[in-house]
Specification:
Layout lengths: L1 H17 L34 H26 L6 H8 L3 H4 L6 H25 L4 H16 L2 H8 L9 H26 L7 H18 L8 H14 L20 H7 L4
Helix pairs in contact: 2-3, 2-5, 2-7, 5-6, 5-7, 5-8, 6-8, 6-9, 6-10, 7-9, 8-9, 9-10
Length: 273
Amino acid sequence: MPQAKAASTRRSSKSSTSSGSSPQRATPKLLSAAPAPGSEDVPDAASSPWAPVSHRERQREAKRNAVLQAAAQLFNERGFHATSLDDIAARLNVTKPTLYYYVKNKDEILLQCVSKGLEMTLEGIEASRQAGGNAVDQLRACMQAYADIVMQPFGMCLIRVGDEEVPEPSRTELRRMKSEIDHAFRRLVAQGVEEGSLAPCDPKMSAFVIAGALSWIGRWYQPGGDYTPEQIAQQCIATLCDGVLRRVEAPAGVAPKAPRRSRRSSNAMAPES
């Protein structure tokens, strides 16, 4: 009987195989690692809604510069006293309290705007000097940099508003920076006179005339006019360097004649005997 039972078992197994049904294997369960104590409260860095600190700092600096840029434009258009923080906020499409995240008050805004204008001017003059060339080449390049900057918002704010509204001791520092610009022009004029490329003149007076004439551009310049900023700068520099009088060139080898004085005017000026 045991043999018959074994044969029956074999037949049953064979029949089951031939019918196509295969025995199901148990799938082992994968055990996940238990989270570390307290880790469920720490978000994944890749899924953090906050940008990295360096990125946030760059964003904040860009927004702060936007506040200063908008303020400088309004100061130039309306004047310092006629511009409010509400005006600046409206220009930027933000609320007034938002501004306090980037600046303390309107006085600080003006200080930063004027400081930026002076820093840009000093950097432009230094870059022009570093470019090399003789004194006249450097002087022209410095004049070009100065003229370009006074037609930009921060440079224009430096000219139109100035440092009179800035409280001490900041005003003293701003005037020290202005003195650096003045002395840079004086040095270049003195070098040009020494080289012989400029006519003999008083470097101090010449520097005042150059800076004063170029600064005045910042008062009357209006964007969108008939001339581009570059054209305005070039024409002003040409006038300062070449003058407005028409020069009549004498033929080669012939010295220009001195202006004649009429006999009548000469007699009229003669003292009575």
